[in-house]
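TL;DR need structure tokens for one chain.
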Amino acid sequence: MARTLFEKIWDRHVVTHGSGGDALLYVDRHYLHEGSFHAFNALAGAGRGVRKPAQCFAFDDHYVPTAGRERGSAGVADEEARGLIENIARNTARHGIRHFHIDDPRQGIIHVAAPELGLTLPGFVINCGDSHTSTHGAVGALAFGIGASQVKQVLATQCIWQKKPRTMRISIDGALGAGVSAKDVILAIIARIGIGGAQGHVIEYAGSTIRALGMEARMTICNMSIEAGARAGMIAPDDTTYAFLAGRHFAPSAAAWEAALGYWRSLPSDSDARFDREVGLDAAALEPMVTWGTNPEEGAAVTAVVPDPASVADPLRRERMQSSLAYMGLTPGMAIDAIAVDRVFIGSCTNGRLDDLRAAAAVAKGRTAVVPAMVSPGSRGVKLAAEAEGLDRVFRDAGFEWRDAGCSMCVGINGDQVGSGERCASTSNRNFEGRQGKGARTHLMGPAMAAAAAVTGRITDVRRL
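>> reply
TL;DR here they are.
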């Protein structure tokens, strides 16, 4: 029987089925961060240990500051954040879990550092107590976020109960135009199908456009699958995947590499596999995208205008748009590229990789930021690689702040925040009210677009630069 990539991985990992139709899945990798303390506390309360600590990996990312890191956790000004960083160090040491802590040269955002270390591999089932775990599907893994009680379950059993989701294939074909990035692709998808458009589904991204993308761009697309309501996002492994993984620290090597390749090459969806839903996009029709509202579906091409809620027939959607525009301080009919910004953030698990920094630096080079602009690499590895290429000097010369690795201003819980009423051009993944700080107004866009906003002081079509 023909099967999809998702079905092949799902079938291989089912341990047993429950009476309610749920399946118990075996978990290959379990990633943890500072917010996992609830699960560790519950585990201790139940008198349980960690079932397979060698398959668990912890990273400091959400709460670590991106400045003043010389003193390690002792230099974390916020007492609560410092406590969480110290707490995960104690919990991982107690249970024998490998921990990439605040001082580790391999530290970084889980969804950036784990793939670059070769921990994320095709065919794996991967869990983490973070919704953007879907990022890891870019290598051909089934990766999805879980809640605190499920984190406890995976720690205790290395398995998780799940209902089998439906399948959706989103095919993008053709060549992307100049200035159009992977971030624009996923924002265009979400604008088309909506934030609930993939609810209950696992998305497989396919088509000639996807096959032509590098691994970092593929991660950007899979990262924001959750913003469309999907359980996970996936891309079939291919030669691009294998070249990315070859030689990485935790990837298989020698004979084990050849055996792994044999399995990985069997994973792509069969040519006659059926999906529950199909969506298609023409890459040539895409433009640089910007969000104007307070959820990721409220986005449009940079050449468009802010939409008028009065033109929308659905009363619920119309009311939501009115609320978004009121919060964002925008009026219908405004040209999107006329919106002034107060600051710029480049980073996050969506756009904090080396290629993202290269794209932003290409725009910043020889120009000067006219608003405060911050660059936070997604990992220490990315930071070192960028510095080796001189990207940090490009940013500094242009007046950008060059920070350390972490979730930074994406979540606004680590000291990096947007002020109330301030408007931020951001490469992060969420633009909800207060996401980057109380009263903060967030416009999502790609890294080159964010750099363009920094040097012009407003949302700008990067193609003009």
